[in-house]
Amino acid sequence: MAHCPFEKLADLRGVLDEIRGWPGIGEPKPGSFYFKRTPFLHFHIDKEQRRWADVRNGKDWGPEVEISIDASHVVQSRFLREVKRRYGAVLLSSETAERSVP
User: Fold this and answer.
1) Which helix (H) or strand (E) segment is 101 a member of?
2) What is the pLDDT of residue 1?
3) Smallest Cα–Cα separation from 31: which of 70, 23, 87, 39?
4) Chain centroid to CA 90: how far?
5) DSSP class of 5
6) What are the beta bridge partners of residue 45?
7) What is the mean pLDDT of residues 71-88?
């Protein structure tokens, strides 16, 4: 499945701006986020214009997170809350991995 074109993420500008400010997060391509060197978040869209995000949850990818085009403020807040929760799991798994290195 192809990644969502960046112009189809315009309604998420505020959400993406917040994610860009989190420690360890980089955005090598618009709309594709990494935590350090590990992919963390990217978006997909299908022919029916269904949009969703793949978001890492700890060491693995979690279930898809639906985020409709022109999502309401409430939906965007819910999305951001879920991404933030998963970011916390990624941080925790990263800290655990760093502590286990001899």
Assistant:
1) none
2) 73
3) 39
4) 11
5) P
6) 51
7) 98
